[in-house]
Amino acid sequence: MNVTSINARLMQGNQACAEGAIYAGARFYAGYPITPSTEIAEVLAERLPQVGGKFIQMEDEIASMAAIVGASLTGAKSMTATSGPGFSLKQENLGYAVLSEVPCVVVDVQRLGPSTGGPTAPSQGDIMQARWGTHGDHPIIAISPSSVQECFELTVKAFNLSERFRIPVLMMLDEVIGHMRERIIIPAPGELEIVDRKKPKVAPSQYVPYEPQDDSLVPPMANFGEGYRYHVTGLLHDDTGFPSNSPAVMGEHQDRLHEKIRRGLHEIIMVEEVQTEDADVLLVAFGCMARSAARAVKEARAKGQKVGMLRLITIWPFPEEALRQLAEKVKAIIVPEMNLGQVVDVVKSAVEGKVPVYGICQADGEIIPPERILEKIEEVL
Amino acid sequence: MRDSWEIRLGGSGGQGLITGGIILAEAAILEGKQAVQSQSYGPESRGGSSKAEVIISKENIDYMKVRAADLLLVMSPEAAKKYVDDVKEEGIIILDSTYVKDCEPKKGKVYKVDISRIARQDVGREVVANIVALGVIVGLTGVVSQEALEKAILARVPKGTEEMNKKALAAGFQAIKSVVNAA
Amino acid sequence: MFAEIEQYFRTERLPHIWCPGCTNGIIVKSIVEAIQKAGLDQDKTVIVSGIGCSSRATGYLNFNTLHTTHGRALAFASGVKLANPELNVFVITGDGDCTSIGGNHFIHSARRNMDLNVILFNNNIYGMTGGQYSPMSPSGAKATTAPYGNIERPFDICNLAIAAGATYVARGNSFNTRQLTDIIYNGIANKGFSFVEAIASCPVYYGRKNKLGNAADMLKWQRDNCITKEAADRLPLEKKQGKVVTGILHHEPAPEYTTEYQKIIDKFQGGEES
User: Fold this and answer.
1) Mind listing the pLDDT tens digit for each residue in A107-160?
2) Quick one: A177 exposed, middle or buried, by C-beta within 10 A (0-12, 13-18, 19+)?
3) pLDDT at C255
4) Pairing state of beta strands A332-337 and A357-361?
5) How far apart are CA A292 and CA B64, in angstroms?
6) Is the pLDDT of residue C47 over 90?
7) Topology of domain A3-185, per CATH?
8) Interchain CB distance below 8 Å, A369 and B65
9) Distance CA B41, CA B18 (A)
10) What is the pLDDT of residues C21-34, one digit of tens each?
11) N or C: which end of chain C has fewer CB within 10 A?
């Protein structure tokens, strides 16, 4: 038995997400019970006080989102978790965090919708809500893990990106990934990189809270209580943080929010390519569907079909560049997703008609099995 | 000996099948294998239908759901009806004959074991029927070692119930031995 | 500006957006006087507000200030306070913000008893959106959305706060500022959820719609119709009809949330483990 298998253990996806948060330095969680995300709250209710952190069950989903923004302003790395109906309710305050640039992580363990839908049925139906759920134009970062190991490691990454870019980061789990148990190796302390928000270097009297200090366009952030008294608002504002009605100021503010993410794309975009070198058919998949697609690749290859997969780990911003490069080489793209057509349209728009793009879209609470993908491969070859 | 096992455990909520699936997966990981456990259940935590799935393999596991089972255990008539056809031709079916009567699967090798009655009468409490069932599964297939299984069971069950669970496990091993010998 | 309280204001942000005759400024002055009297460190004090006329106050106040979303100030404030209990946390809210869209957060914050100081500016109307009725507009009052008179019944928000478990509840008005400053100050001293309803006047919308006269007339109404709890306790029922009772209405300390939470953390002394 080697060292890694000694540290290996069986863990549920939701629990791995909660443990990843603690590893990342999260010390505040506010949430509201909702299937199938509740285990995250239950684990953190037990674990956070053990490491000096705080857990609170708020009166509703809206309050949970508000509380993590408030907590983050005091310097605490903060998280909430929910599922479809709760994700809808959080949207307004999620937009607040985007505009006021408050780091936080929001986990959505996707279940079948719309409305109450299928509480225990898996789905990938919140992908577009993740992008556009809150009103107005705004950037967002959304990440989709495909294994229990990734539930842990990508939650750490989500906190890192959130602190680095001062933006809420969405962890888009699905019921399959959140509830399944599999082998995980918990990284040793120090093994994964931990990123903390940049703090101001100037004296409080010189602090301009939203003035970027470098090309990243991400302003340093002071915590409440440290002597840097400043104003945080959901109104569009200038570098001082105070609201303005000036079209120039409002436009500049919006532009910077987008530009800071555009400049960070190389740090944000994560994809995995599986046997794409010689592929004729490319599967584009994410979350639990990437597991089904991986099996389809293996079985198609066994039949002599040249099939590969682009796995989207980062979903928003969309990994357009990686996709475009592969679109130059393949003859067809298939997008299997557990919704009625959300990512497939983004793929179509990204490849601009260079190759045909087919969706396998299903929203019935079942994961799409490898057989259906294999049938589609036969069809398009 | 197969390199990869797709195992489905079907029954009613409250029979401990999800716990059973977790224990089996934990035993596999103790042996250095890969394992994935998943489940489906209704909104009720007692009664209603319950299904646990476990895949155990020496290789990395991609697709996490059982397609056609290498091994099916059913502990309720409803589960028998629902899952008995999704078994590989050379698969194994274990029926808890305490509850599953009149079931004649068309494929797979079938073993009828009086699991729940053994738990109730021989061990003393029906709540350990899932542990008896694990004894039957592992005794028959060797999907994990008996030592790893016992270790996984003792790590998971409530304090103070270790002896009863060991007894249940031994009863499971014994029961399948008798069934195989009688055949 | 009064020199003795100037340090508490971001004077460069003035003038404020409130209409002539609005009493929000009077209430804000009482808040900072109470903070001054309590000797709170500005660096360690956070003022949180929601959306509406009164909630714009945070922009003018020289503290750590957080101007949030409509109705949600208490939820943001709960996150601030629990994450760092060393901070003194105030919430400025209005009658629409607090009792309508924020009603759920209000009752649960009162029940939870976190050490928050809440000052509700009650002007009986939605001012910023131009004069719609609120859950605290009296029955019969006119508003742009109640052109034939309000057929709803208003909350007695202080009674609601008491019923929901607030440990300190008081009411004041913008005429008797000495009393208002005192009850806010006493609320700061209460370790728990402290709630102060401050009666404000909105001559531009509420006053004009309901023919209540000019700003001075509305302040005179406050003077003539408010009686202290001590006076009210001595009066027979018929003489109290139509009067608004002010002063400390309820004070019953109970375990404070962040203190109780710290006790759980203290059980795990020995530090961080992960």
Assistant:
1) 999 999 999 999 999 999 999 999 999 999 999 999 999 999 999 999 999 999
2) buried
3) 98
4) parallel
5) 8
6) yes
7) Rossmann fold (3.40.50)
8) yes
9) 9
10) 999 999 999 999 99
11) N
Who contacts A83 (Cβ-Cβ below 8 Å, separation ≥6)? A34, A35, A36, A37, A108, A109, A110, A111, A119
pLDDT the model gives residue C58: 98
Which of A177, A183, A338 is the best residue to mutate to test the B interface, defined by the most B CB atoms within 10 Å of its own CB?
A183
CB A236 within 8 A of CB A254: yes
Nearest neighbour of A92 by CB, restricted to C13, C44, C69: C69
Mean pLDDT, all residues of chain B: 94
Contact A58 C108 (CB under 8 A): yes
**Structure tokens, A381:** 């070859």
CB contact under 8 A, B29 and A183: yes
Report the pLDDT value the prediction gives residue C245, as an integer from 0 to 100.
98
DSSP percent split of chain C into helix, strand, coil, nearest 5: 45, 20, 35
**Residue C112, number of CB atoms within 10 A of its CB:** 22
8 Å CB contact of A225 and C78: no
**Structure-token pair, residue A138:** 């705004």
pTM surpassing 0.80? yes
Which of the other chains make 3 or more beta carbon contacts under 8 angstroms with chain C?
A
Contacts of C64 in chain A (CB under 8 A): 73, 224-225, 229-230
Residues of B in contact with A288 (CB under 8 A): 64
Q: Which residue has the tokens 């530090």?
A: C271
Domain that holds residue B111: 4-182
Q: Which domains does chain C carry? A: 19-256 (3.40.50.970)
Taking the domain A273-380, which CATH number applies? 3.40.50.920
CB distance C108–A59 less than 8 Å?
Answer: yes
Average pLDDT, chain C: 96
pLDDT at A229: 97
- The domain limits of chain A are 3-185, 273-380
**C58 part of contact set with chain A, CB < 8 Å:** yes
- Shortest CA gap C195–chain A (Å): 19
Q: Where are the beta strands (DSSP E) in B16-122?
A: 34-41, 49-57, 69-74, 87-96, 109-113
| Number of Cβ atoms within 10 Å of the Cβ of C12 | 8
B15-34 exposure pattern, b = at least 16 Cβ within 10 A, e = fewer: bbbbbbbbbbbbbbbbbebb
Of the candidates C77, C90, C88, C86, the residue with the CA atom closest to the CA atom of residue C40: C88
Q: Quick check: helix, strand or coil at residue C60?
A: helix
| Predicted confidence band of residue B43 (pLDDT cuts 50, 70, 90) | low
Kindly indicate the confidence band of residue A300, based on its pLDDT and cuts at 50, 70 and 90: very high
User: What whole-number distance in Å separates Cα of residue C97 and Cα of residue C84?
Assistant: 25
pLDDT band at B49 (very low <50, low <70, confident <90, very high): confident
Task: Establish if A106 touches chain B: CB-CB under 8 angstroms.
Answer: no
CATH of the domain at B44: 3.40.920.10
pLDDT in tens, C166-202: 999 999 999 999 999 999 999 999 999 999 999 999 9
Q: How many CB atoms lie within 10 A of CB A134?
A: 20
Q: Which residues contact B69 (CB under 8 A, 6 or more apart)?
A: B6, B7, B8, B83, B86, B87, B88, B91
Instruction: Dump pLDDT digits (tens) for A3-38.
Output: 444 589 999 999 999 999 999 999 999 999 999 999
| Burial of A174 per CB tally in 10 Å (0-12, 13-18, 19+) | buried
| pLDDT in the model for residue A3 | 42
In angstroms, the first-to-last Cα distance of chain A is: 45
